[in-house]
Design goal:
Elements (H helix, E strand, L loop, with lengths): L14 E5 L6 E7 H4 L37 E5 L12 E5 H11 L10 H6 L9 H5 L7
Bound molecules: zinc ion (2 copies).
């Protein structure tokens, strides 16, 4: 199995993986081991992770206005759900709240998607309470 390279611009290291269960399934990260351990700010490397939630533009169908006071509130997310598609265009920074919603909306599994993230991104912003997709998925209960 070939593993993708580190998401950070200029790094080129192989992504860090770790065994997550006995049958050898590996958890695959977006960054290499060196970057994960804090080396992402070394000379020649530009960190991919943003310092804010990228859903502040409403890409998930609602606008996030989370106040980020610590980097631990932010996670890197593969937009299409495929962790092997570890390219900058496919990796966004989401706060933990938005990441949870996105995971629920799209599912972690490729075969379990009702709508694609691209449709949401191209959609103009509407209030979450009026968003037909969120209503359809049962996030918003119509009154
Ligand atoms: Zn790296
Ligand atoms: Zn957010």
């Amino acid at each position: 199995m070939t593993f993708p390279i580190c998401i950070n611009d200029g790094c080129g290291g192989k992504v860090h993986t770790r065994k997550i269960n006995k049958n050898g399934t590996r958890d695959i990260r977006t960054e290499c081991y060196q970057c994960h351990k804090g080396g992402r700010n070394r000379p020649g490397v530009k960190p991919h992770k943003k310092t804010f939630c990228e859903n502040n533009d409403g890409r998930l169908g609602f606008k996030c206005d989370a106040t980020i006071i610590n980097e631990c509130q932010l996670e890197m997310d593969h937009i299409d759900g495929d962790r092997f598609n570890n390219v900058p265009e496919n990796v966004q920074t989401l706060c933990r709240n938005c990441h949870a919603i996105k995971t629920k909306m799209f599912g972690d599994c490729k075969n379990n998607r009702e709508i694609t993230p691209i449709e949401v991104i191209n959609e103009t912003y509407i209030s979450p309470l009026e968003n037909p997709k969120l209503i359809e998925l049962g996030f918003i209960v119509e009154v």
